Amino acid sequence: MSELMASLAVLAGFVVGALAVMVVRQGMVQQRPVASLDGVDPGALPPGVASVLAVLPSSAVVLDRQDRVLRASSAARAFGLVKGDRLMAAELLALARKVRRDGEIRESEIEVIGHRFGQEATSFAVRVAPLGSYGQVLVLAEDQTEHRRVEAVRRDFVANVSHELKTPVGALSLLAETIQDAADDPEAVTRFAGRMQHEAARLTYLVQDLITLSRIQGAEPIPTPGPVPIDEVVHDAIDRCNTTAAAKDITLVAGGAEGLQIWGDDELLITALRNLIDNAVAYSPEHTRVVVSARVAGPHSDSVEISVSDQGIGIPESAQERIFERFFRVDAARSRATGGTGLGLAIVKHVAAAHNGAVTVWSKEGSGSTFTLRLPAFGGMAVATPGTTKIPLEAAQ
C-alpha cells in the first residue's frame, strides 16, 4: 500500500504542479460561479486543465471555494463520488475543506458505499491538494478494491499454506521423538516409521502441488505447447491413479471418442486429469466405478470435453461455487483423512485457464459428481476417429 500511495503522491504532485503553472501563465485572477458540471463556464478553469484531468486513470475532481464541482472525471461519476455539481463522499468533502483552510496536502483511505442496490463498497486511496490561489481544490481517488482483494487472498494463502505445512511437519517431529523413546521395541519402531513415511509423502505432495500451482497461475503462456492426443492423456492419468483405485477396489473406465487432439502441454493436462481422478477415487465408496470419457463438445464444435464421473458422496450445492478455491474443503476432517492437499481442483482450474478452456462441475449429494474439462481442439475443429470407442481400462477387477 505504501508503494501505491507513493506513486499516487508523485502523480498528484505532477498534476498539481502542471495546473499551477497553467494558472500562473494564464493570470487567472477571477473565479466565476458554476451552476452545474454540464453547464460549467469554461473560464472557471485554466485552459487545458480539463484535458489533463481527462487522461488521468484515477478519479479526479476539482472543487471551487463553495465546494461545488468545477470538473469531474468520468471515473469519479461512475463510482458515485460526484452527482451533479456536488461531491457526495462526506469524508472527501471534509478533507477538501481542511486543505482549503490551511493549504496542506492530505492523504487518506476511505470507503464509499455503492450508489446502486447490491453494489459493494469501494475502497479508495485519496490525495487532496490546493489548486491555485482562489480556493480551488484537487481531489484524486484511486480505486483500491481489487488490490485489497488480492492482498486478502494472498494473506489467506500464506495462512493456509502455513497451517497445511505445520500438520505433517509437527507429526514427523512427534513420530521421531516416539521412535527414539521406543528404540527397544522393533514392532513399535516399524509402526511409527510407517506413519513417518505417510506424513513425509503428504508433505511431498503438498510441496509438489504448490510448485505446480505457482507455475501455472502466473498467467504466463505455456512454454512449449503442441498437439496433445487426448487418448494418451487419459491413459497416462488413469495409469498414475491405478494403485490408489485398486486399494479401494474401484474400477477406472476410459470411454468415449478416440482420435481427439488439443493444443497445449501434455504434462499439465495429465496433472489436471489425475487430480480429478484422484478426487473421484478419494470421495467414492469401495467397489464402485469412476468413468473418464472424451467427446466433441457438439456438432461442428471447436472444443473437446473430458469428463470424470464418480458414484461418490456428491458435493452440496452451496459449496459447488467454492470448490475450485485453494485449500477450500467441503468436509475438512474427511479431506485430511484422504491425504489431500486442498490444491488439486485449484490446479485443475488454472490448467484449464492456461489452455483457454474451463472446468465445470455437476454434483448431487448421494449420487456422485461429474467434472468436465472443456478445451479448444487442435486445428480449430474437434474431429473424432469415426466408429471407434475406447475399451474400458480397469484398475481393479
UniProtKB/TrEMBL annotation:
The UniProt keyword set, sorted, is: ATP-binding, Cell membrane, Kinase, Membrane, Nucleotide-binding, Phosphoprotein, Transferase, Two-component regulatory system
- Catalytic activity annotated for this protein? ATP + protein L-histidine = ADP + protein N-phospho-L-histidine
Show the GO MF annotations: ATP binding; phosphoprotein phosphatase activity; phosphorelay sensor kinase activity
Instruction: Just give the chief location class.
Output: membrane
Enzyme class, spelled out: transferase
* Domain Histidine kinase residue range list: 160-379
Name the EC number(s).
2.7.13.3
Determine the domain of life of the protein's source.
Bacteria
Q: Which Pfam families match?
A: HATPase_c, HisKA
InterPro entries per record: BphY/WalK/GraS-like (IPR050351), HATPase_C_sf (IPR036890), HATPase_dom (IPR003594), His_kinase_dom (IPR005467), HisK_dim/P_dom (IPR003661), HisK_dim/P_sf (IPR036097), Sig_transdc_His_kin-like_C (IPR004358)
Instruction: Read off the CDD domains from this record.
Output: HATPase, HisKA
* Coiled-coil ranges (or none): none
A Gene Ontology biological process in which this protein takes part is: cellular response to phosphate starvation
Q: Where is the signal peptide?
A: none
Localization in the cell: Cell membrane
* Cellular component terms (Gene Ontology): plasma membrane
Annotated protein name in UniProt: Sensor-like histidine kinase SenX3
